[in-house]
Specification:
By secondary structure, the protein is α+β, with helices and mostly antiparallel strands. The chain folds into three domains: 162 residues, Immunoglobulin-like, CATH 2.60.40.4060; 159 residues, Cellobiose dehydrogenase, cytochrome domain (Immunoglobulin-like), CATH 2.60.40; 141 residues. It has eight helices and 26 strands. The longest helix has 39 residues. The chain is elongated. The structure holds protoporphyrin IX containing FE and 2-acetamido-2-deoxy-beta-D-glucopyranose (2 copies). The site of one 2-acetamido-2-deoxy-beta-D-glucopyranose has 6 residues, from strand 2. This is Ferric chelate reductase 1. It comes from Podarcis muralis.
């Protein structure tokens, strides 16, 4: 029997906390619970025995108690006597003996009776609360049951409160089955991610809006999470700035449906009373489902938006640890503004904002393409057109400068995009932004330094060559690291691990090209050497040869501006010797 564990948990849950708050004017809809609690009286006197019946679809466990209707957070009231000793047992909640009834085993049942005995000091009105375990992991916690009162107490203005079935005065209830996506696009406005999301399936997010009456919209949302799922309506693509948010928060086998105005990037501030109706929910197999109804129009000051306008729609999920935590990952955003009360649509969304995509793409182009070609041109192509000039400068230099300026411009332009998107510094992006800023700084420093370079023959030119080479190389290496870090950021939602493999391929290709060109340069020298040896029979020792080679193969001090082409080096060396 599993009940010790579950019963204990239910006991803790049910004994220690009050019911969920909600609205007393909900109406019964198809979502409402099939489990009902009925009593055979509407009034009681101290000492009375009241028959309480729980019935509904087959369930395995339950936990029934009575509480002061005026103070549902308070202790359990009265005691119970059993009607079915085989399938039920009395428990002690707080200090009151026998103040609750629960199951004895998880055998399937659909009906159970018990007697509640009104205590001497009973409050004026009491309400029955029941928690039902339909099956493992499907709970309905503290379904509010009927309220009964002592005779001389005036009942509330609305006679409804004395109704004995759950449906009529039900504030929050449960759903019995997953939502349906079948009328998405025809009858419902749906946002699905992925776009073929079947709301019953795991690992997909579903949000729908359906007009109920002239001024009412039924909202359904589901998604996998053990924390919360939420959506928000926004005038822009940035969360915050007063966005209208709706959160379904799973709180130990219970879902709270809340509204909030997202003012900043901090935690949401919940509205004390969500202006929602017919709130219902279900927790099953790691999926949170919730549904509610709200009016299309709201007075502006309440923080809710009117639904008949165009909004970006965000969907987020995250964890709850006492407080709402930031989303696990980038929220989903629709790729445009939509009118959820307008023509029914079935749309998807993206977890990767366009600005961030452009940021990644431009940075990639800059640091994997333009900068690499620029370096190769400077290092290996100088001897190709030694004498041809373009606008008064050597061609290789013009090409190198143009490519490097382009790299810096691309970097600068795409550098601001994440800041634009985030509206500030993003503290969720690890080292990427820090290293990224370093790369940006080096990329700005490099052309400035080049602008102040000493003339080719000046002695300080060597220092410039060193600095230019090392700054450039550091920036390139850092940029590759930054790219690897950036690719895995949630804002891009790239397919792991293939993005990393692809990038590794690119890096290997670049390094390979460089090595090949280097070997090619080596061979050129070698050939030149052979010619020299043949013509002059010079006593060309291996060590001198290696020295010459190392000068051309290792960039500094032979940095890529004036000395890297092999032939000239050999001639210079010959002249010296
Ligand atoms: C080497 C060039 C790059 C530099 C200098 C750079 C720089 C930056 C900086 C400074 C930020 C922080 C902005 C902020 O905190 O709001 C940032 C954010 C970001 N970068 Fe890069 N980046 C580079 C390359 C890339 C690449 C190639 C990718 C993707 C493949 C990428 C993906 C991202 C993402 C996703 C963010 C947003 C992080 C977030 O706020 O969630 N970056 N980048
Ligand atoms: C309700 O049920 C209890 C227990 O069976 C019984 O004692 C009581 O008389 C019943 N009350 C009414 C009004 O039927
Ligand atoms: C949204 O749709 C509703 C219903 O069709 C319409 O009354 C309203 O004017 C639309 N709003 C906008 C901003 O288009």
């Amino acid at each position: 029997m599993e009940s010790p564990g579950v019963a204990l948990m239910l006991w803790a849950l049910a004994c220690l906390s009050g019911p969920s708050t909600g609205f007393p004017n909900g109406k019964v809809t198809e979502h409402f619970p099939k489990h009902t609690v009925e009593v055979n009286v509407t009034e009681f006197k101290p000492g009375d025995r009241v028959k309480v019946s729980l019935s509904g679809p087959v369930f395995e466990g339950f936990f029934l108690q009575a509480r002061n209707a005026e103070n549902l957070e308070g202790p359990a009231i009265g005691s119970f006597a059993l009607a079915d000793r085989k399938r039920s047992q009395v428990l002690t909640c707080g200090r009151v003996k026998n103040s609750a009834v629960s199951h004895t085993s998880k055998s399937k049942k659909s009906h159970l009776d018990a007697y509640w005995i009104a205590p001497r000091d009973a409050p004026k009105r009491i309400q029955f609360l029941v928690t039902v375990v339909e099956k493992f992991r499907v709970f309905w916690v503290k379904i509010p049951g009927p309220t009964i009162s002592q005779p001389n107490i005036p009942t509330l203005a609305t006679p409804v409160v004395t109704e004995v079935t759950v449906g009529t005065s039900l504030p929050v209830s449960h759903l019995t089955q997953p939502f349906s996506a079948s009328d998405c696009g025809s009858n419902k406005f749906c946002v699905r991610n992925p776009s073929d999301c079947d709301p019953g399936a795991r690992d997909c997010f579903f949000l729908s809006f359906k007009r109920d009456h002239v001024d009412l919209i039924v909202v359904e949302m589901s998604g996998p999470s053990d924390g919360y799922i939420a959506f928000a309506l926004s005038h822009d693509q940035w969360m915050g700035g007063g966005d209208d948010a709706y959160l379904c928060i799973s709180d130990s086998h219970h879902v709270d449906i809340k509204t909030a105005s997202l003012t900043g990037r901090a935690y949401p501030e919940f509205d004390s009373e969500p202006a929602l109706d017919e709130m219902s929910w279900r927790l099953a197999d790691g999926l949170i489902q919730c549904s509610f109804r709200r009016r299309i129009h709201f007075p502006a000051l309440q923080g809710r938006f009117n639904l008949d306008a165009n909004y970006y729609i965000f969907m987020a999920d995250g964890e709850v640890r006492g407080m709402i935590h930031k989303h696990y990952r980038q929220p989903l955003i629709t790729d445009g503004k939509f009118n959820v009360t307008g023509p029914a649509k079935d749309i998807g969304g993206s977890r990767s904002p366009l600005l961030i995509k452009i940021h990644g793409a431009l940075m990639f182009v800059a640091w994997m393409t333009t900068v690499s070609i620029g370096v190769i041109v400077a290092r290996f192509f100088k001897p190709v057109w030694p004498n041809s000039l373009l606008f008064g400068e050597e061609i290789w230099f013009q090409v190198h400068r143009a490519l490097m300026v382009m790299t810096v411009l691309l970097t600068g332009a795409s550098f601001i995009l994440p800041f634009l998107y985030r509206g500030g510094w993003s503290d969720q992006a690890g080292f990427h932004p820090y290293l990224g800023c370093t790369v940006m700084a080096l990329a700005i420093f490099q052309p400035i330094m080049a602008g102040f370079r000493p003339p080719p023959q000046a002695p300080r030119r060597e220092i410039f060559n060193w600095l230019h080479w090392s700054t450039g190389t550091t920036a390139r290496i850092l940029a590759v690291v930054v790219i690897f870090l950036g690719m895995d950021l949630p804002a891009l939602n790239l397919p792991d691990p293939w993005d990393t493999y692809t990038m590794m391929g690119f890096v290997a290709w670049h390094v390979g090209t460089d090595v090949l060109l280097e070997i090619h340069g080596y061979c050129l020298i070698h050939k030149e050497e052979a010619d020299i040896l043949a013509h002059e029979r010079d006593s060309f020792t291996l060590s001198k040869y290696l020295f010459a080679l190392s000068l051309s193969a290792v960039p500094p001090p032979c940095s890529f501006h004036n000395c890297c082409e092999s032939p000239r080096y050999i001639f210079e060396w010959r002249n010296v010797t």
